[in-house]
Amino acid sequence: MNEMARLQKRRLALYGWMLAAPALALMSLFAFYPAIATFWHSLFSRGTSRRPSVFAGFENYGDLFADPTFWTVATNNLIYAGVTIPVSIIFALVMALWANAHIPARSFVRSAYFTPTILPMIAAANLWLFFYTPDLGVIDQITGFFGASPTNWLGQPETALASVIIVTIWKEAGFFMIFYLAALQTIPPDLHEAARIEGAGRWTYTRRVLLPLLMPTTIFVFVNAMINSVKLIDHLFILTKGGPNNASKLILYWIWEMAFAYFDSPHAAAMTILVLLALGLVAVAQFRLVEKRTHYR
Amino acid sequence: MTNQPPFIRINAVSRVFNGGNGVHDLSLDIPRGSFVVLLGPSGCGKSTTLRLIAGLETADQGSIAIDGKDVTSAPPSKRGLSMVFQSYALFPHLSVAENIIFGLKVRKTHKDEIKTRLTDALRVTGLEGYEDRKPAQLSGGQRQRVALARAIVAGHPLCLMDEPLSNLDAKLRHAVRKDIRDLQQRLGITVVYVTHDQTEAMSMADIVILMKDGRIEQVGNPADLYLKPATAFAAGFVGSPPMTLIPASALPASVIPDGLDANHLTFGIRPEDLILSTGQNDHPWGIPATVTGSEFLGAETFVFVAIPGTDGATARLPGRVEISPGTEVSLSWAGAAAHWFDGERGHRLTPTIPGTSAQDTKITSQPDTATSTL
């Protein structure tokens, strides 16, 4: 009897490992091992045919911090994240609230909002390239109608980053809207009616009931937006290539440049590790802080 | 009740949804301080009526007045009422206390007053000690009490309840029924209560409003509904087990009162009024029937019998009765216990012959006034 229970327990443990094994194998192969290998690689100097690579400790990291481009790129990425994350979340929420209301052509509105998400980023970037074209593009056509002179939106340091940011928001907001829409549909209509009877107006209901209940979704979307702010750089290749004068260069684009344009993989590896570290820290802080204040059903 | 004006007056209100459900030309007066139950099967319009009073639905036609004020187009918050939802509609992210004072906070009530009112509401509903719990940490009965507390905390003179007990188990339902009734009496508020459970209606109501297909079938106190159902529908809906309704053509001509046409007549008899006799027939007449089964419930036994040409009947006999299926019995009843309804339209008919009806000796076969809406 006792023996039987022990066997059963062991069998359950075995099943658990068996079920976890495929994911664990894939994760090790494509996430854990590359991360460790990258770290290891970042500790060696760049090897050439005449000077083989040698162990350099944290020298590569020191080089990065000494490079002014590093600070430009980091600042760019902070601005990029600081604008795209909150703005796309707010847009997503507003669009979801509207698309969830009883309005005519509701499904049309929903799919219209979602369309940018379906487009590949490269295609979207090409579209926006036309929009931004000085003098001929849609944007200059409109501003020109009001008498403004043509602007080279992507070609001047003052507007390049902002232009890139707008494309990202346009692309992301519809995607995040879907999550909000799904969350909104799980909130029973009774709650709104109860709030109405208690005298709560639309704004009070949104602030006191809707937003707290959407908090889990907001966290999820926030984490995704944050990852995207580092990850999603496809449009840079089409729009600005990080220029002019690094004005719109983001971290991942810079890493790509170092690794595959200048073939300086140790520095690229070091930069990658820094990004991983930063993202890890933010994620931990986020879940620690926000988790406590969130109601999960 | 004195001759004061009604607390709620619903005048010729219609609200029709796509598909034809809703309420049609509904007129209703509800006196102040009464416990009114809207009773009916699902889809009869009882919830729509409640939502019309609450202001969650707007009437297509007609007017609604609460406490002498026309509120037909007023928003729910301006009607001075509270509501208990079937799902309780508690805010899952707020604690018990925050749920209860949600409305007070929205209305910017003074902090001290909120505190006293909260303490009162918690005490009245027996929720002391649960203030900081979230609804998910409460049992069904406790959640129901939170919903009640939220409804009474504002001190509104009118409380609407939409099937508030349907998510509770049978035993708890019985206890809460009594609690709600006591609370209503103590606070002296007017309660409009929606249910499809006729037991709830009978045990709680001052006035029962029986609805069917968006129209009022009968209005009256529970005894009226039980003893003098205005229609065959009312007879079949109120009472458990329901009144047996069989076409009069299946009965011997001798039991049919004079002046009523057996071909267009439905006969109704309450299970407890049905007399079952076996073998030696001491009754002057009887309808032959066959026992098909019985249910022993402790204090009483239900006996089901088959009568040729009908769906059968149920008799309620006190105590324990041993009777095996297949037994031939003879059915009879005291003349006054019989109810007669129009076979097609279903309204109540009053026989003319004093001999067959001890209570109603007045007029010729006429529909009761309460059925005029049909």
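The two ends of chain B are 28 Å apart (CA to CA).
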